[in-house]
Each structure stands twice: as C-alpha cells, then as structure tokens.
Amino acid sequence: MAASKRVALVTGGTRGIGRAVTERLAASGIRVAAAYARDVDAAEQVREVCQQNGGTVTLHRGDLGDPASCGTLVDNVLEQHGSLDYLVNNAGMVIEQHYGDITADDWHRHLSVNLSSAFFLTQVALTHMTEQRFGRIVNIGSVTGLMGSPVQIPYGAAKAGLIGLTRSTARAVARKGITVNCVIPGSFDTQLAQELTYTNRELITSMIPLGRWGRPEELAHAVVFLLDDLASYITGAVLTVDGGMSMGG
Predict the structure, then answer these.
(1) pLDDT tens, 68-127?
(2) Taking the CB of residue 29, how many other CB atoms lie within 10 A of it?
C-alpha cells in the first residue's frame, strides 16, 4: 500500500506535539484520525488547517483513561477509514504536586491516561495490524520518565512504564510486520508546558545543553521518521529528543 493511502491514529492529536504530528502526517497525504479529550475549538481548528492544505483529518473525542473508550476509538477509526496503519500514543496529562499531596485518584488517573491507554489502544489495534502484516506504533514518553521529577511523580512513573511497554510489545509482534518504538521528548514549547505549576522555565533551560526548548515540529519529525517504510529495521528503540537534557549537567 502506498504511504499516501495509509491511516494514522494520533491520540492527543489536536494540541501541542500531537497537533504537530497530525499536521505533518496530513501534509504528506496520510489520512489522520486525531483523538482529543476536551478542547473542541482546538480540534476543529486543526482539522480546518489540514483540510485547507489538502489533508484529511477526522476528529474523535473520548476519555482514553477508560479502557472501553480505547476500544471504541479504534473501532470508529476502522469504520470510517477502513484501515489502521500507524498508531501514535501521545495522549497524556500531568498535574504537578508535592509527594504528600498525591491522592489515590491522582495516581490512578495519571497511570490510566499516560500508560494504560497506550496498552489498550495497542491491544485493539494489533488485531488489525496483525491481519494486514503491517503496522507502526510510536509511544510518546517523557524525559521525566528518565530523569525523574520531585513534582511529577505519577507522571514520571507512567512515562517510565511506557519504555517497558514499548520493548515488550516490540518483542511480541516483531515477526508480524509491526514495529514499536518510543520517542522521549524533553522540554517543548506547548500549552501543556505553560500550564505547569512548579516548573521554573529558566532553570529548565539552564539544564539543556542546546540552550533552548524544543519546537513541536522537531518532535513530529522524529515520530514521522519512525513511521517511515525505511524505518522497518528499527523496533524496541527509545529515541530521546531533548536537546541533550538527559545527559546531565
């Protein structure tokens, strides 16, 4: 199948990094199903921009912290597009809290959105990808999962878990024409980053060897690289895109 006929599901696909991935894929002729949780205006804006540029984007609203919603989402994508070739698990949430302020609900919500959703979406998507003997899955982690953070504890735990999920899934499907990889963003200029309570931007910038925060389109480039046909010999990889931040000072 020509790449231009393929279908991508991008979760969290209408804001920040996810929006950049959606726009990049749609511009290349790939049909994109962009999933989002709440911001209807942002979702409609992404679809309009992509359509004006000749791309095809469908919008899918749902709570991916719910396993049943993950299955429904994949079913809807297959019903509308007839195929699913690329899955980008980008949906995420982070609320900065001190250790003693984290409730059981906070913990479970972070894990369900940031980690469990990737598992349940992948589990359903693999049925179709296995039948067609082709698929690309990219999980979006976080440098917090590598370095830790004193105020992003459930988030860091979930994102670290994505690395294990990536490698285990990659081993499980390696002989089925499916690759599974993980991209680790550092600090990127997105609305999510602007909403963080305790993050000191100047301090974070001082920790980045390149001396600046990343642009969403730079992360999208790494994701699209792993989706490419010529990335067929890359699986179980963890690609860090953080300006060198995780190397330490």
Answers:
(1) 999 999 999 999 999 999 999 999 999 999 999 999 999 999 999 999 999 999 999 999
(2) 14
The total of other beta-carbon atoms located within 10 Å of residue 168's CB is: 12
Task: Could you list the beta-strand ranges (E) of the chain.
Answer: 7-11, 31-36, 57-61, 86-89, 135-140, 178-185, 238-241
Threshold 0.70, pTM exceeds: yes
The Cα angle at residue 146 between residues 119 and 155, in degrees rounded to 5: 55
The residue length of the chain stands at 249
Cβ 21 vs Cβ 223: under 8 Å:
yes
Distance set, CA 155 to CA 96, 125, 150, 227, 235 (Å): 9, 24, 11, 25, 24
Sorted by where each begins, the domain ranges of the chain are 3-239
Which of 121, 91, 93 lies closest to 108, judged by CA? 93
Q: Report CA 234 to chain centroid distance, whole Å.
A: 18
Which run of H or of E encompasses 167?
A: helix 153-173
Q: Can you read off the two tokens belonging to residue 107? A: 């913990």
Q: In the structure encoding, which two tokens stand for residue 32, read together? A: 């994109």
Annotation says 36 is catalytic: no
Domain 3-239 has CATH 3.40.50.720: yes
Distance between CA atoms of residues 122 and 83, nearest Å: 14
Cβ atoms of 25 and 224 within 8 Å: the answer is yes
Beta bridge partners of 116: none
**Which residue in 36, 155, 198, 233 is the catalytic one?**
155
Using DSSP's 3-state secondary structure scheme, residue 147 falls into helix
The one-letter amino acid code at 128 reads H
